[in-house]
Design goal:
This protein is an alpha/beta fold. The chain has helices at 11-25, 55-65, 69-78, 127-140, 158-161, 164-171, 179-188, 253-272, 287-296, 309-335, and strands at residues 93-96, 99-103, 108-114, 117-121, 148-152, 174-177, 198-199, 204-208, 211-217, 226-234, 237-244, 275-280.
Length: 352
């Protein structure tokens, strides 16, 4: 169980500790992810052999990423064998005027603040996280957790739905998930699963307090993964933000092709909605480092999550190339009659 950060600590106390930890990891804001024991480097690691069927695609992804720390982190996250190192849970922080990061370190939730209440995107790992991270985290930024009206679960893994039922029971929040992942929970019957409530249709619009969030099916990580497009506000200006619902690739060729199709369809959605902001529910995108950069920078400085349209499109191009590499590796493994050697298809312990 991840213990929440002690809320008695000040932001300044946390930031000093966090920056020291990131420096040790080689992940200070603006730096490329460093190789760690048991993890992949931002370039394709030596564990992926030069003769690997996927290598040309991985090399292309690295070229697309250049020295961009956000894109290099994505290459690392999708490189076979990549493992998420332990990360401290950050204090809550407003990424935008109406968007709050609530994190347990290795997994995060986002709270969208509206005039009529809060839409929570994911609910962390457990009832304890709901009580110890979400509720006090909202209070810390001046929001009332009793205003949670909706919990949107991006996919049916425990680290994303674990606190949902607690919040539904306490505040009357409605819980949303795709039909395929509600069915996944019905089959697998995991602990802390929410009671089936509202289905998310592909392309559904959830409106609260004048804020409309689009919810798009992007299957691959799970059969019913959902990726939101969220309007975020900074100083009176609105920008369109995306959150990719589940990154860790599946292992079979068929599932990987489904994931690739989702990358293509969501990339088109991003063009249509002029997405300029990239978000993630796991620290696979230099996101916690950018949150600390945002926390300590002076008012009026450029928001590190506001990448702009071309850079968010390049993010998806990197993802496309890395998934194509995974497909090539899986096809070669199937042709050889062997397993892919991929990690278990879940969230914990990998950059998902």
């Amino acid at each position: 169980m991840i213990r929440p950060t002690r809320r008695a600590d000040t932001d300044a106390d946390f930031t000093r500790r966090r920056l020291a930890q990131l420096a040790v990891l080689g992940l200070a804001a603006g730096a490329a992810p460093a190789a760690l024991p048991g993890t992949a480097s931002a370039a394709v690691p030596s564990s992926v052999k030069a003769s690997s069927a996927g290598r040309p695609h991985y090399d292309r992804a690295s070229r697309l990423a250049t020295d961009d720390p956000v894109l290099r982190a994505l290459v690392t996250a999708l490189t076979p064998g990549s493992v998420l190192p332990p990360l401290p849970a950050p204090a809550p922080v407003k990424l935008f005027d109406n968007l709050v990061l609530l994190s347990a370190g290795w997994v995060s939730a986002m709270a969208v603040l509206t005039d009529d209440g809060i839409v929570l995107i994911d609910a962390l790992t457990s009832p304890a996280d709901a009580e110890g991270v979400v509720v006090p985290g909202l209070r810390a930024v001046g929001a009332d957790p009793a205003a949670i009206r909706h919990v949107v679960v991006t996919h049916g893994h425990p680290d994303h739905f674990g606190g949902a039922q607690t919040l539904a029971d306490r505040y009357g929040a409605r819980v949303h998930m795709s039909p395929a992942d509600w069915d996944l929970l019905a089959r697998t019957r995991p602990a802390d699963a929410p009671v089936r409530d509202l289905d998310i249709a592909d392309g559904a619009q959830l409106t609260l307090g004048g804020t409309t969030i689009e919810l798009h099916h992007t299957p691959g990580h799970t059969p019913g993964t959902v990726s939101p497009v969220i309007p975020v506000r900074a100083g009176g200006r609105y920008h369109s933000a995306m959150l990719w619902g589940g990154l860790n690739p599946p292992s079979t060729v068929a599932e990987l092709r489904t994931l690739l199709a989702s990358v293509h369809s969501f990339r088109a959605v991003m063009r249509r909605t002029n997405v300029e902001v990239e978000l993630s529910n796991h620290p696979n995108d230099h996101g916690l480092e950018r949150a600390e950069q945002l926390r300590r920078q002076p008012p009026g400085a450029a928001n590190p999550f506001l990448l702009g349209g071309p850079r968010t499109q390049r993010y998806m191009a990197v993802m496309d190339a890395m998934v194509r590499g995974r497909i090539a590796d899986a096809e070669a493994a199937e042709a050889a009659g062997a397993g892919t050697g991929a990690a278990s298809h879940s969230c914990r312990g990998v950059r998902t």
